[in-house]
Amino acid sequence: MKLIGNYTSPYVRKISVIMLEKGITFEFINESPWHDESQVPQYNPLGKVPALVVKPDEVWYDSALIADYLDQLEIAPALLPSDRLASLKVRQIEVLADGVCDAALVIVRHQMLPPEQQSESELLRQRNKIQRGLDALEKHAAQREWLNGESLTLADIATACTIGYLNFRRVVPNWCVARPSLVKLAEKMFQRESFARTVPPSA
């Protein structure tokens, strides 16, 4: 398998962590979707990462879908419950974590614009999304049912990748204030070898 993307993307990191946790051998192809010569559109017509090349005529894209595909290979550890409703609950937390990343990415890209093109109201809107999303993730982490529990889940990986991205881009420097369960989750997850091997390069 080939994983197309770069570790500055939390979505790419999520898939790489999953594959490392499952012991799946893959080749990492470092490609950014943001420059004109990018090869990413050859794998994903939307020009987004990650893309997972299983074989020349089988390519998967969108991190949530790739994560689902990898878990359906039935390679331990299982990151989604076998019960369909329980699986959806875990995946909803993944969607929540990914949504926080989406808002953070909008902020990062927006701040690259010339100052006269930046909108403070848009930045505030995205920051509010992040704060609400983190509050919801904190509640899930405190309940320790589908997130921050005894068994590793897709929700754990997605949430930790989100926190890693917030740290990397310094989008919400005070994200940890009044969120002790997320802090505990992050500390636990960042100690795993899969996370140590996928730390984003220095910006």
Automatic annotation (TrEMBL):
InterPro entries: Glutathione-S-Trfase_C-like (IPR010987), Glutathione-S-Trfase_C_sf (IPR036282), Glutathione_S-Trfase (IPR040079), Glutathione_S-Trfase_N (IPR004045), GST_C (IPR004046), Thioredoxin-like_sf (IPR036249). Residues 83-203 form the GST C-terminal domain. GO terms for molecular function: glutathione transferase activity; maleylacetoacetate isomerase activity. The keyword Heme does not apply. Transmembrane segments: none annotated. Residues 1-78 form the GST N-terminal domain. Signal peptide: none annotated. Keywords: Transferase. One of its GO terms (biological process) is glutathione metabolic process. This is Glutathione S-transferase. It comes from Winslowiella iniecta.
